[in-house]
Write a structure and sequence with these properties.
The structure holds 3 protein chains of 3 kinds.
Chain A: H1 7-12, E1 27-33, E2 39-45, H2 47-51, E3 55-60, E4 82-83, E5 89-95, H3 98-105, E6 109-114, E7 142-144, H4 147-152, E8 156-164, E9 176-181, E10 187-191, H5 196-206, E11 214-217, H6 233-245, E12 249-252, H7 255-261, E13 268-276, E14 282-294, E15 315-325, H8 338-356, H9 360-366, H10 384-395, E16 408-409, E17 412-424, E18 431-436, E19 442-445, H11 455-467, E20 474-477, H12 494-513, E21 522-527, H13 529-533, E22 541-553, E23 559-569, H14 576-595, E24 601-602, E25 607-608, E26 626-631, H15 650-653, H16 655-667, H17 678-681
Parallel strand pairs in A: 1-12, 10-11, 14-15, 19-20, 23-26
Antiparallel strand pairs in A: 1-5, 2-4, 2-6, 3-5, 7-15, 8-13, 9-10, 9-12, 13-14, 16-17, 17-22, 18-19, 18-21, 22-23, 24-25
Helix pairs in contact in A: 8-16, 11-12, 14-16
Chain B: E1 5-8, H1 12-18, E2 23-26, H2 32-37, E3 45-48, E4 57-59, E5 65-68, H3 73-78, H4 80-85, H5 87-95, H6 99-104, H7 107-111, H8 163-169, E6 173-178, E7 181-186, H9 187-190, E8 209-215, E9 222-227, E10 238-247, E11 250-259, E12 266-267, H10 269-275, H11 282-293, H12 305-323
Parallel strand pairs in B: 1-3, 2-3
Antiparallel strand pairs in B: 4-5, 5-8, 6-7, 6-8, 9-10, 10-11, 11-12
Helix pairs in contact in B: 5-8, 10-11, 11-12
Chain C: H1 2-5, E1 9-16, E2 19-26, H2 31-38, E3 57-60, E4 63-66, E5 79-81, H3 94-101, H4 111-126, H5 145-151, H6 162-182
Parallel strand pairs in C: 1-5
Antiparallel strand pairs in C: 1-2, 3-4, 3-5
Helix pairs in contact in C: 3-6, 4-6
Classes of the chains: A alpha+beta, B alpha+beta, C alpha+beta.
């Protein structure tokens, strides 16, 4: 139970985020967004803006320096006259102060020729196609057996379509970059990023620089939830602006502009067909997914992939179809794929349980599997059943009335729901160094990121254990691309991936130490690329079960979560204190997904119109009453030297379905379209 | 934000003198600064009236309240006299915004906050309120939380104040100092329905300064209830302020005002008329609610507000009836 | 046109964490930007710049306020306490200690606002201020979990540290009350 190592800095205001480094004579940038959804820029008139005292320059497609192509075309800032979506950055003002820059941005006149745009996803969109792969490299479609026939022959069938809206990550710290070009031609970026090494690599490519000529510094990052996993146009904008005015430039994307320029979760339309025997044994699972990407870059969310993992059935099919619309490019948002996919799967399982008259916990246990259903691989460990049993016991599941709409408390209806969760245990190659100095202190270096996960603390505990040293003798340096290369804080793979490199570097150092330390100290390094390649083939996943009790006001349709419990099987938990926060944080975001989060697209304009935190609701303190997380002991030798699986994302995965299932138990109403707001629920009560 | 001159007024007369075309009075700034930063409001001068000597709450011998316009929302809600004498008012203020916003926000500013709508707040989109004649995209666009009552072709925005809903139910009077001297405006006449001039949220004249709000005595049970999409810190989908006097099973007096349903706090006079003298029973409450909501003209995506408002009226009356 | 776009500046005085500062500010400058950019006090955070997240919460003349909505020019002469001023002589306040103890934050970006807000919540409750969930408005509210949740709802936390935040405020409340009783 270790406190976060940076706790004191965070409660005293000493922890610096990207905008907060003292720079010499900084200038400030403000961006101009496209006001059409598709078309061409015919002219950029910066004259009025440039006349404003304090304005240094205006950048746009008419004067921007040439940038090099990178796969993410969102980074080709001001490189063409084409507008691909409303809200795209089309110009930037750099000025002496933020107030001047923002005001001047309103005076940049841009004229366009607009073309008809297409921003509405539907399951019969004529542009739907099968992507070559879904994020990051899964097949778009899979099929085994004869799912249609098996479904048709099943005694109990569920055929339902679920939708999830576009959702925005909305980390509390907006996407922020402070950029400075140094006298030697190198570029320093203070950036709110989930990965300083990959951001360095990408930005170096964009500006045609050697990797060694870019340094990305990010010791503290104010949340990201995937949206800071890859560099966004703000990084390029700040660097370009700093080059143009030959001064450091700071740019934080205003909250409203984040809704178009910093990524979001694609809306999904998901049709599920489940066919089962009368006792609930699954014969057929068919999961068809429809989702969107932009015309700029393909991003195909892997929504059906959890369906390939969780339940046994001889006949099965999953598919993803993508429409390329005139919208901003969707991207990673906490557990991309698993989160919307498991909302649909676990809602459908609840419908099946109801149709078959089987307890929802027992239905999931009945369809458990000891091999990954589609790959046939053995699981490195799988304790879904233990999570379900332990959770049911702790939560008091036996008090649930299986009859929906039966439990009244005054004018409120009360109900309970359950859902399973799963998330892959990824591992990626990393490098680290470990050093011991003559005074016996250890320093471990790796360009990992702590975006609030507790990574700095976990890596320190991991290093101390590998070094057989007290943690207070170990300093772990992270959050700087000048440290040994590390992969992104994403895919819940941080601790496993970085931790393995840290352990290997520490083991190597111990091998060199031989009991004594020379005056100059000793250093060792590690690269886990080969080790990861050589791993045995297993299906590696974390599992969990989430239980929710809701109350629904029968007069208003207001849903409040009274209690929520998640029980997880995620390998060894490195630091229980921060791990609990990770699980609970994920579940809290899941409450948001279930009950309030929705980015509303206006088809006529082509943008998300509720683009601030007063209109896009995320949970407030009053929405979270009693959430707890627990875990089952899991010893898995096939993972990594720590025996850990990732914990950053699984907390959100089953949360929304468990809330929606509780709403059904409370009211008898099945809401298949998130979020479950009074506007959706009340008319059905 | 457009540059502006800032001046701090020393008295109401001074404020009026400093007020010119393009000038705005500044209270706590919680709505005005927000809108200025969005480019929606563009004053050339701010006359700060937050420190004028309008910061007192006075309980008069007859039980009425005189609340200075510069009183902060927090001070109003925390005032022990107000909590005892007019609980619905304290409850309404506490239902609004957040603790830190209520500390900045003033009574005058709360009344004069602009109506809300996604399109009004986006200076790059058409809006009849911001740019008269440019059209109302909300009618056919995102309007799930906009008006069901009293809207017009030109505008379907809603007034966001909670406090004003309670004041509407309480028949408050707004004291105004204008170019032609002082006058008192019934709260019902302060805010407007949009009609074909949605750019005007109120009936105040240019330069009018709200100095105080007068609230008549209240000696019957009252309650404020607010429905929103999250448990706190969100604008109302529908809210309600009710005061109810039941004697011998009969409704002697009733006041009902709704928030979140119209361009102004909506006084439910038809419901009140239906109820006065009627038995205080659920069927009558239901009938009164229906009578009021017969006036509703819901848009494509906000029809849920009709049963929501109806249920709130019935529920709140029922609860208050049990209390009295 | 120039008069419409030329910044207007004015001189103000702010007393921040006990230190007086004489400043020349653009009338448009928020108290938040003034603290962060002019005074280098970057503890107060900008999350939305519109009063919708609470990350910028400071104590303004003793009361919590959104520094993003406060124009610096309108608070000439004000006393401001930011997160940097909560600890005394390097000794963390009860609220700060409780936040660490309860792991009441993850990324830390909303934390300065949460801390200033929590500090004020204890003070407001001590003065008998009610909240939207106070059942009996005539009495002095007891700062139970429901009261804490409501009162802390002006500070959004996307990491979802609310359960820890509520525990921390409760713990700090008990501790300050105990200390007050001892004194």
């Amino acid at each position: 139970m270790t406190d976060r190592l940076e706790s004191r800095d965070k409660v005293t205001g000493a922890a610096r985020y990207a905008y907060e480094y003292p720079l010499e004579d900084p200038a400030y940038a403000a961006a101009v967004q496209a006001t059409i959804a598709k078309g061409e820029i015919t002219a950029v008139d910066a004259e009025a803006a440039l006349k404003i005292p304090g304005v240094l320059t205006v950048l746009s497609c008419e004067n921007a320096p040439h940038l090099h192509d990178v796969p993410d075309r969102e980074l080709a800032l001001f490189q063409s006259r084409t507008v691909a979506y409303r809200g795209q950055f089309v110009a930037a003002v750099v000025a002496e102060t933020l107030d001047i820059a923002r005001e001047a941005a309103r005076h940049v006149r841009i004229t366009y020729v607009s073309e008809p745009h297409d921003v509405r996803l539907s399951a019969d969109h004529p542009g739907l196609y099968k992507p070559d792969k879904v994020n990051p490299a899964f097949p778009a479609d899979t099929e085994q057996g004869d799912p249609e026939a098996a479904y048709n022959d099943s005694a109990v069938r569920v055929d339902a379509t679920y939708t999830t809206p576009a959702e925005h990550n909305n980390p509390m710290e907006p996407h922020t970059t402070a950029a400075q070009w140094n006298d030697d031609g190198t570029l320093t970026l203070y950036d709110s990023t989930q990965g300083s090494s990959p951001t360095r690599d990408t930005i170096a490519q964009v500006f045609g620089l050697e990797k060694t000529h870019v340094r990305v510094i990010a010791p503290h990052v104010g949340g990201g939830f995937g949206s800071k996993g890859t560099p966004r146009p703000n990084v390029v904008l700040a660097a370009m602006a700093a080059g143009a005015v030959r001064r450091p430039v700071k740019f934080a994307v205003p909250r409203q502009q984040m809704f178009a320029t910093t990524g979001y979760r694609t809306p999904t339309i998901q049709r599920f067909r489940l066919g089962a025997d009368a006792d609930g044994t699954l014969n057929a699972i068919v999961h068809e997914v429809f989702e969107q990407s932009s015309t700029v870059t393909e991003f195909a969310e892997q929504t059906a992939t959890p369906t390939r993992v969780v339940y046994r059935a001889g006949n099965r099919r999953t598919s993803h179809r993508l429409a390329r619309l005139d919208v901003p490019t969707p991207s990673w948002m906490r557990a991309p794929g698993e989160t919307p996919g498991m909302f649909a799967l676990e809602s459908a399982m609840d419908e099946l349980a109801f149709a078959a008259g089987v307890d929802p916990v027992e239905l999931r246990i009945l369809n458990d599997t000891d091999r990954e259903p589609e790959s046939g691989l053995p699981f490195s460990s799988r304790n879904l059943v233990a999570c379900l049993r332990e959770g049911a016991d702790r939560f008091g599941w036996e008090h649930r009335d299986p009859e929906p709409g039966a439990r009244w408390e005054g004018r409120r209806l009360v109900g309970m729901g359950v859902a399973a969760s799963t998330y892959p245990a990824y591992m990626r190659p990393n490098k680290a160094t470990a050093r011991v100095d003559a005074d016996g202190r250890f320093t471990v270096r790796i360009a990992a990121a702590d975006i609030g996960t507790g990574a700095r603390t976990a890596l320190t505990l991991i290093a101390a254990e590998a070094l057989k040293a007290d943690a207070d003798r170990v300093t772990v340096e992270i959050g700087d691309s000048s440290l040994p290369d590390a992969t992104v804080a994403g895919g819940s793979a941080g601790t496993a991936s970085w931790g393995t490199a840290v352990v290997r570097a520490c083991e190597s150092l111990r091998g060199k130490m031989n009991g004594s330390v020379p005056p100059g100290g000793l250093e060792a390094s590690a690269d886990t690329a080969e080790e990861i390649k050589a791993r045995d083939e297993y299906a590696r996943h974390a599992f969990g079960a989430q239980f929710t009790e809701v109350e629904v006001d029968a007069d208003t349709g207001e849903v409040r979560v009274r209690r929520m419990l998640g029980v997880f099987a995620a390998g060894r938990i490195i630091n229980p204190k921060t791990a609990r926060s990770q699980f609970i944080g994920g579940m809290t975001m899941g409450i948001g997904m279930a009950l309030m989060e929705e980015s509303v697209m206006d088809d006529r304009f082509g943008d998300y119109v509720n683009r601030d935190l007063a209109q896009y609701h995320v949970p407030a303190c009053a929405d979270v009453r009693d959430i707890d997380a627990a875990w089952v002991e899991e010893s898995d030798p096939h993972l990594n030297p720590m025996g850990s699986k990732g914990i950053g994302e699984i907390g959100i995965v089953g949360a929304a379905a468990s809330v929606a299932n509780a709403v059904h138990n409370a009211t008898g109403v099945r809401v298949r379209d998130l979020p479950i707001t009074p506007s959706r629920l009340l008319p059905l009560l | 934000m457009r540059p502006f001159v800032y001046e701090r007024a020393t008295s109401a007369d001074d404020a009026l003198q400093r007020h010119n075309d393009g000038a705005y009075y500044l209270g706590g700034g919680t709505n005005l600064v927000d809108l200025m930063r969005l480019g929606v409001e563009e004053p050339s001068r701010l006359v700060d009236v937050s420190r004028l000597p309008h910061g007192e709450i006075e309980l008069r011998p007859d039980g009425s309240l005189l609340i200075g316009a510069a009183v902060s929302n927090s001070d109003l809600a925390a005032d022990r006299t107000v909590r005892e004498s007019h609980p619905v008012l304290a409850q309404a203020v506490l239902a609004g915004a957040s603790g830190q916003i209520r500390n900045l926000a003033t009574v005058g500013g709360n009344l004069l906050q602009r109506t809300r709508c996604s399109y009004f707040q986006d200076a790059d989109k058409p809006c009849n309120k911001r740019d008269p004649g440019s059209g109302c995209p909300a009618r056919e666009g995102e309007h799930h939380n906009l008006a069901i009552l009293g809207h017009s072709e030109a505008c379907v925005a809603t007034h966001p104040s909670d406090m004003a809903v309670a004041l509407a139910a309480l028949d408050a009077t707004v004291h105004v100092q204008g170019r032609d001297g002082e006058r008192a405006i019934p709260i019902a006449d302060l805010h407007r329905l949009p009609g074909n001039e949605p750019q005007r949220d109120t009936n105040l004249e240019n330069g009018d300064l709200i100095t105080a709000v007068e609230v008549p005595p209240l000696d019957i049970p009252s309650r404020y209830r607010k429905v929103r999409e999250r448990a706190s810190f969100a604008f109302a989908l529908v809210s309600i302020a009710v005061a109810l006097d039941v004697e011998g099973g009969t409704v002697r007096d009733v006041r009902i005002a709704l928030g979140g349903v119209a361009h102004k706090p909506w006084r439910a006079r038809r419901a009140e008329e239906t109820l006065r003298g009627a038995p205080a029973i659920a069927e009558e409450f239901q009938r009164a609610a229906e009578a009021e909501l017969d006036l509703a003209e819901p848009l494509r995506d906000n029809a849920y507000k009709v049963p929501l408002a109806r249920n709130l009226i019935v529920r709140t009356l029922t609860e208050l009836g049990e209390q009295s | 046109m120039d008069s419409e776009v030329t910044p207007v500046h004015t001189e103000i005085t702010l007393v921040v964490n006990g230190t007086e500062h004489r400043l020349r500010v653009d009338t448009r400058a928020s108290l938040l930007d003034t603290l962060r950019e002019d005074l280098g006090l970057t503890g107060s955070k900008k999350g939305c710049d519109h009063g919708q997240c609470g990350a910028c919460t400071v104590l303004l003349d003793g009361r919590r306020a959104n520094a993003c909505l406060a124009l610096a020019v309108a608070h000439d002469g004000a006393e401001v306490v930011t997160v940097e001023g909560l600890a005394e002589d390097g000794r963390l306040s009860a609220v700060q200690e409780a936040f660490i103890e309860q792991d009441a934050f993850q990324c830390g970006y909303c934390t300065p606002g949460q801390l200033c807000s929590a500090t004020a919540v204890l003070d407001e409750a001590g003065h008998g201020w009610p909240s939207a969930v106070t059942e009996d408005l005539s009495g002095d509210p007891v700062l139970d979990d429901a009261e804490i949740r409501e009162r802390m709802s002006g500070n959004l936390c996307r990491c979802g540290a609310y359960t820890g935040i509520v525990k921390a405020v409760r713990e700090a409340s008990l501790k300050t009350r105990t200390e007050a009783t001892k004194a």
